[in-house]
């Protein structure tokens, strides 16, 4: 598992401890980021299974369903933080990740125009901080990122926020 999937000795040992775990992992990791799949199984899935006193064979979330969730992270539909919330709901309700994301309106905003509008709003509200940033207080960048994320309800794609914000603040 270490060489085939590029996992740490610890991750590999946890995943191969029982055949059912290894089979589940292989199904989740198929065609996906192997490390991400391992992290989600070990941290999130095993965590909830332990809390519920269940074995992997009794998991309310199938390997396919967990894989679908990882796909939503990989294609930037949702953030990793949102995915944890979605996963907890999947575990409770048995609903598919895509269904939960739609029902709760959790899709990440990746539309540059929408992100720019939020950034413009924040910059207009924080003119003093914009001036401070432009006069050399680079550390304020994190403040602006936080304000934009808050204003978007945490739905703006953080990578895009960073790129667009940098252009606007430096512009």
SSE blueprint and pairings:
Blueprint: H1 2-5, H2 9-16, H3 19-29, H4 34-52, H5 63-74, H6 80-93, H7 97-104, H8 112-125, H9 127-134, H10 141-151, H11 158-170
Helix pairs in contact: 2-4, 3-5, 5-6, 8-10, 8-11, 10-11
The mean pLDDT is: 94
Q: Class by helix and strand content? A: mainly alpha
Number of domains: 2
Helix content: over 70%
Work out the number of β strands. 0
How does the major sheet shape up? none
Radius of gyration: 20 Å
Task: Provide the succession of SSEs.
Answer: HHHHHHHHHHH
Shape designation: elongated
| Beta-strand content bin | under 5%
Number of helices: 11
Q: Show unreliable segments.
A: none
End-to-end CA span:
48 Å
List keywords for this structure.
171 residues, single chain, Arc Repressor Mutant, subunit A, 2 domains, mainly alpha, elongated
Describe this structure in words.
The chain has two domains: 2-104, no CATH class; 112-170, Orthogonal Bundle (Arc Repressor Mutant, subunit A), CATH 1.10.10. 71% of the residues lie in helices and 0% in strands. It has helices at residues 2-5, 9-16, 19-29, 34-52, 63-74, 80-93, 97-104, 112-125, 127-134, 141-151, 158-170. The longest helix is centred in the first third of the chain and has 19 residues, at 34-52.
């Amino acid at each position: 598992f270490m060489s085939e999937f590029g996992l740490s000795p610890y991750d590999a040992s946890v995943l191969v401890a029982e055949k059912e775990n290894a089979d589940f992992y292989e199904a989740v990791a198929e065609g996906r980021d192997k490390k991400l799949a391992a992290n989600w199984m070990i941290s999130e899935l095993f965590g909830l299974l332990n809390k519920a006193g269940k074995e992997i064979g009794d998991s309310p979330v199938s390997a396919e369903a967990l894989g679908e969730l990882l796909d939503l992270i990989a294609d930037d539909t949702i953030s990793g933080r949102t995915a944890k919330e979605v996963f907890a709901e999947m575990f409770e309700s048995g609903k598919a990740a895509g269904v939960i994301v739609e029902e709760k309106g959790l899709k990440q905003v990746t539309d540059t125009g929408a992100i720019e509008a939020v950034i413009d709003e924040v910059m207009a509200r924080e003119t003093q901080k914009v001036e401070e940033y432009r006069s050399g207080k680079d550390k304020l960048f994190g403040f602006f990122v936080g304000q934009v994320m808050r204003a978007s309800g945490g739905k703006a794609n953080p990578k895009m926020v960073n790129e667009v914000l940098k252009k606007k603040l430096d512009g």
